[in-house]
Amino acid sequence: MNRLVMMVLKNIWKVPGLWAKLCRYAKAPENYPEAEMYTHIQHILKLAIKSGNVELKVTGTENIPTEGGFAFYSNHQGMFDVLAIVATCDMPLGAIFKKELADIPFIKQIVSCTRSYAMDREDVRQSLTVIQAVTKELLNGRSYLIFPEGTRSKNGNQMRDFHGGSFRCAVKAKAPIIPIALIDCYKVLDQKGSAPVTVQIHYLEPIPYEEYKDLKTVDLAAMVRSRIGDVIAAHTS
Question: Which listed site, 23, 49, 81, 170, has its alpha carbon 20 to 30 Å from 204?
Fold first, then answer.
């Protein structure tokens, strides 16, 4: 059975109520506390993950700051990445994602509730506008998830190059950077079947602005990629 279908079917009697509540939040997110909306999204995701035969092994949650204004940078393996991170990070966060996902039901509602941003990678001006908006949000104390590869890797746990430009918002906001190493996320929704699968999420130690302020964005990208790569190598050998 398709894993996504199984996630829905096992919770079919809960779906109408959960969906209605999510849509109510998404219609007027300014009327609700961000923590309340985020908790509801986490609840939905945790139900789906449990029902989908997925085990999450998480390390380093103590590295997540208790106050906002920081940027997560993660390797990108597939559709499940954001779900895994949101389900295991209790600090509300938004994300930068590709515009093609903007109108997909459920994702559209999550975007509204988390003040996430869709980026058109083919439109330089629009991309710059998104970077400026996220920079402002970081300065205002909100936190964001960014995938510096720009698109998912199609080679399992092997990463693509990290784009230096994706680090501009963190640099401009002088925000701490928390690298995230994802392992085997691609097996959840990007492979056929619904056999049990274990996914690893490793939250690495924060990189304060003082540590990277003198680096060019391309060098910062290489440093973050190297740290993530070291963790992936250590847990897949």
Answer: 49
